[in-house]
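Technical annex B. To support the medicinal chemistry partners, we prepared a structural model of the target in complex with nicotinamide-adenine-dinucleotide, based solely on the information shown next.
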Amino acid sequence: MSKIVITGGAGFIGSHIAEALVQDHEVVIVDNLDDYYPLALKQRNLDCVMAKGNATFIRGDITDLELVRSVIDDTVDFVYHEAAQAGVRISVEDPFKPNNANVTGTLNVLSVARDAGVKRVINASSSSVYGKVQYLPFDEKHPTQPVSPYGVSKLAAEHYCRVFYEVYGLPTVSLRYFTVYGPRMRPDLGISIFTRKMLANEPITIFGDGEQTRDFTYIDNIVKANLDLLKTSAADGYAMNVGGGHRITVNDLIAHIREITGSVSEVVYSDKQKGDAEHTLANVGLASELIGYKPETTIGDGLRTYVMWHRQGVKP
Ligand SMILES: NC(=O)c1ccc[n+]([C@@H]2O[C@H](COP(=O)([O-])OP(=O)(O)OC[C@H]3O[C@@H](n4cnc5c(N)ncnc54)[C@H](O)[C@@H]3O)[C@@H](O)[C@H]2O)c1
C-alpha cells in the first residue's frame, strides 16, 4: 500500500483516479473546491470516492505553500497533480487565475515533493500545449505554440516538471490529456453541454462551423494511464500524449449524440471563440512504447455509456 496525494481530487479526472486507488492505497485529496463550476458536483465526486473506500479530504489551495507543505510530507509516496484552473475560455477572460493555480501551484507541488522525497509526481498536462497545428497527428516533437493563456500555463507547468526531474532528480511525468469525457465530466465541456441540451431537446450552439475536430478520450483510458505510472519509471522526465487516437468533427459528434438520444434539438451556429484550438489529434506512439498505453474505448461506446449515465438521472 502506498500513500498517494491527489491534488484536484474533487474534480472530474482527479476523483476518478482517487476512486480507482482508494481500495488499495492510502489516498489524500487536496482541493480548494473552487467555484468554477457548482460545488454540489464536486461534493458528488467526493461522495463517489468515499463510497469506494476511505480517503482523507483536505480543503486547501495549492497556491498556499504552507498548506502544500502540510499535505505532502515524507510519508507520501506518489502525487497525482490534477488541480488546475481548467478551461480555455475562462483563461482568455482572466489569464491571472490559471497562471496562479497552474504555474505557481505546480511549482509549489514540485518543490515540496522534491523536499519530501516523493517517488513520482504525475502531472496532468493538456493537448492545449500544442496550439497552432503544423501537422497532425500531434506527436511530442510537434512545436508547442499554445493559442490560449490556459495552454501557456499548462506548458509552463510541464517545463517545470521536466526541469525538476533534470535538475533535482525528482521523477515526474506529464500526461497530455486530449479532451477527456465520461461520467462526472466537467459541465463546461462540449460533450456535457450538448448531451444535457439534447436530452432536453433544447437548441444547442456550436461555435464556428462545426468542422473543427477533436480527439476525445474516454475517462477510463486516462485513469489507466495514470495508474500504470505507479509501476514504472520508464516515462520519468517525459511529457507524453494520452489521447483517443481518433478525431471527429463537432458536427459528427452532435450526429452521434443525436443518434444515441433521438434528440430533435436545433443546432445554432455562432462565432468562433477566442483561444479555441482548430484541431487536435494525438499520436499515442510514445505512451504506447513507454507504458503500453492503448485507448480501448471508442467514441461510440464512450458516448453511449455517458448518455446512459445521464439517463440514470445523475446530476451532470
Ligand atoms: N478534462 C479535460 O478534458 C482535460 C484536458 C486536458 C487537461 N486537463 C487537465 O486535467 C486536470 C483535471 O481536469 P478536470 O477536467 O478534472 O478539471 P476539474 O476542474 O474538474 O478539476 C480540477 C480540480 O482542481 C481544483 N482546483 C483548482 N484550483 C485549485 C487550487 N488552486 N488549489 C487546489 N485545488 C484547485 C478544483 O476545485 C477542481 O476540483 C487539470 O489539470 C486540467 O488542466 C483536463
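Notes passed to the chemistry partners:
Residues 7-8, 10-14, 31-34, 42, 61-63, 82-86, 101, 105, 124, 126, 177, 179-180, 186 surround nicotinamide-adenine-dinucleotide (CB under 6 Å).
The mean pLDDT is 96.
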